From TrEMBL:
Lineage summary: Bacteria, Pseudomonadati, Spirochaetota, Spirochaetia, Spirochaetales
Domain Peptidase M20 dimerisation: 174-265
Keyword terms, alphabetized: Hydrolase, Manganese, Metal-binding
Stated name of the protein: Amidohydrolase
Cofactor section: Mn(2+)
């Protein structure tokens, strides 16, 4: 396939980013590299927090404000010797390289009408990155597009979907507070672990009358002490909730809160919750159509909207920020899967994804009406 942009530079950028893995909110070298490259090619760049970046380039005439978003953070893994290894095992290096390459293309070609924003977001893996970006404040954006590599089992190389349908991710931690005592005299204490165990069992037997995909399970238990002869005063249970829709996720969360209260009442513990909700998508139909046409142009045929049990904090931009969004799933022959220390993919997907982003942005500039009250730029 012939491309009309610098694929050599694209691969160079990817290799640099791949060799600089940094975990959530510590993407300092990554951010500095991207900022330097963006300024070189004429983008104005605003820092959002310590590592987030919002770059923009204005066209010759007023028009819609279109954003491409890339995540930047890597993951950490424990090795057999106990040391920690940082790796780009979710493809965020690829996403940043593709968005940067699209930016290079538009900087070289110039923009006739509108504003192009490039958003490089930290901390996606924490599910807090998008929320923090929104807290820093974004200018008016008429449409935002994201992209993510997909596992081979879900989408092979040479295919792409204009609408990757994530599940909502709704982690919730129930904190039970009892009373410590010597384990030989349990009647003098209130065992917080007993409440936690009751909650875990109740969640494991939970059923729901729905055709939608969902799951709920305990993933972390912490009693804040490791002495076998002490009745634990504290115990926390973190539950991972996944749901195909935000409405179902909310219903399951409320049910689990009720089960936790019953477990607290049963053993006399007090209860508090900690939540960090992540949303299922609420895509803009016109943006999905634009991305579908872009995929058709590059690959000949777009895949239909595709469900995945994974989650993405990208959806905070629409659910909290009110920004019209679409999110492309890109086939990459990725094996054995995301978040595996052995993750690898076919790098020839990088120019494919870049070409799709460029086609989508060009269509957005032609088809999306600009917001009448939007200023030229607030970057």
């Amino acid at each position: 396939m012939e491309y009309y942009f610098d694929t050599h530079q694209l691969y160079h950028d990817f290799e640099h980013l791949h060799d600089t893995p940094e975990i959530a909110f510590q993407e300092y070298r990554t951010s500095r590299f991207i900022q330097k490259e963006l300024k070189k090619i004429g983008f104005s760049v605003r820092k959002l927090g310590d590592t987030g970046l919002l770059a923009h380039m204005e066209g010759k005439q007023p028009g819609p404000a279109i954003a491409l978003r890339a995540d930047m953070d890597a993951l950490s893994f424990y090795k057999e010797d106990g040391s920690v290894q940082l790796l780009h095992a979710c493809g965020h290096d690829a996403h940043s390289a593709m968005v940067l390459a699209a930016g290079r293309h538009f900087a070289a070609q110039n923009i006739d009408e509108g504003i192009l924003y490039l958003l490089f977001q930290p901390g996606e893996e924490s599910m807090l990155g998008a929320k923090r970006i929104l807290a820093h404040g974004l200018p008016h954006i008429d449409g935002m597009i994201g992209i993510h590599l997909r596992p081979k089992i879900e989408m092979p190389l040479g295919s792409a979907t204009p609408a990757l349908l994530h599940c909502a991710s709704l982690p919730i931690t129930a904190h039970f507070h009892g009373k410590a005592a010597h384990a030989a005299r349990p009647f003098l204490g209130i065992n917080a672990v007993s409440s936690a165990a009751m909650l875990i069992h109740a969640v494991d037997t939970l059923t729901w009358d729905t055709d939608e995909d969902w799951s709920a399970k305990a993933t972390v238990v912490d009693s804040h002490q490791n002495q076998h002869n002490i009745i634990p005063e504290f115990c926390s249970v973190t539950l991972d909730i996944r749901a195909q829709s935000n409405e179902l996720g909310s219903s399951i969360t409320q049910k689990i809160k009720m089960l936790a209260k019953e477990a607290a009442d049963k053993f006399g513990t007090t209860l508090s919750f900690e939540e960090n909700p992540g949303y299922a998508p609420n895509y803009d139909p016109s943006l999905i159509d634009i991305c579908r046409n872009a995929i058709n142009t590059v690959l000949g045929k777009a895949e239909p909207p595709t469900h995945t049990p994974g989650s993405e904090d990208f959806h905070a931009y629409s659910m909290i920020g009110g920004i019209p969004t679409a999110y492309i799933g890109l086939g990459a022959d990725l094996l054995p899967g995301l978040h595996s220390p052995d993750m690898h993919f076919d790098h020839s997907c990088l120019p494919i994804g870049t070409a799709i982003l460029i086609e989508a942005v060009n269509s957005c500039f032609k088809r999306i009406a600009p917001h009448a009250a939007a200023p030229k730029s607030e970057c």
